[in-house]
Amino acid sequence: MTKVRLTQIGIDRLVRLDWLEKVSFLVLAGNNVKEVKGILQNDLKDLFRSTRTNVRGSLDKTITILLKIWLTSPPLLDALRMEGLDLIKHLPQQDHLVVHWGMVTAVYPFWSGVARHVGRLLRLQGTATAAHVQRRMREQYGERETVSRRTRYALRSYLDWGVIQETGTMGIYSAGTTLTVDADRLIAWLVEASLHARANHSAPLKELIKSPSLFPFRIKPVQAETIAAASTRLDLVRHGLDDDLILLRKQ
Predict the structure, then answer these.
(1) Is the pTM of the predicted complex or chain greater than 0.85?
(2) What is the DSSP string of the chain?
(3) Which phi and psi (to 5°) does residue 245 adopt?
(4) Which ranges of the chain have pLDDT less than 70?
(5) What is the C-alpha end-to-end distance of the chain, expressed in Å?
(6) How far apart are CA 171 and CA 168, in angstroms?
């Protein structure tokens, strides 16, 4: 199941931040899958050209993605999801974007893959070109128009979230909102979410914290022991004086 999740594209619709916020609060309120789906169908139907949800139109496909992130995610991600919901419940609203980003990353690693290329380009030259990002994603997922199209959905979602912004030239983006992440528990949770998007479920802590896939965030320097202590689902392996490997603990 993990291998399939890592290789599938998944994101085939725009994922708006306010929609994820709505779903997370519906789940926190105790609504089940049927109830959340019904509320979303009613609340979002006017935003789609077709309301024929019985034939799996754009609305239903969007709802499926939203539900998979905060309600029907793979069992492997249950503990991450439940703690993510608890974080949303207790964190100030401006920090919710961090949690939503982490959960989308864990459920749909394609999201993180697009972000990694965007983040690298922003660091190198201050802008990211859609065509360049699409080319890199096709190199990874295959030379298919589907890959380019779904990369566009991810980029449009980043725009909606405000983490990138349009420049005066079509298809070229600059950095948007940058959020500071300095709470140990939130950093540990985001590290865990990032590891779920990696095939080996492990990485050096410095690499994780500075990963271009987390380009919207300014994460404070933190000790590996602090991260491991903040989560019962993470382990620490020390290879040298300054070479700390963080990995998911086998459940």
Answers:
(1) yes
(2) -HHHHHH-----S---HHHHHHHHHHHHTT--HHHHHHHHHHHHGGGSS---GGGT-HHHHHHHHHHHHHTS--GGGHHHHHHHHHHHHHS-GGGHHHHHHHHHHHH-HHHHHHHHHHHHHHHHHSEEEHHHHHHHHHHHH-S-HHHHHHHHHHHHHHHHHTSEEE-SSTTEEEE---EEE--HHHHHHHHHHHHTTSTTSEEEHHHHHT-GGGTTEEEPP--HHHHHHH-TTEEEEEEETTEEEEEEPP-
(3) -100, 125
(4) 1-7, 49-56, 240-242, 251
(5) 15
(6) 9
Task: Set out the domains of the chain in order of their start, with CATH numbers.
Answer: 110-175 (1.10.10)
Residue 96 · residue 18 · CB < 8 Å: no
Query: What does pLDDT average to over the chain?
Result: 91
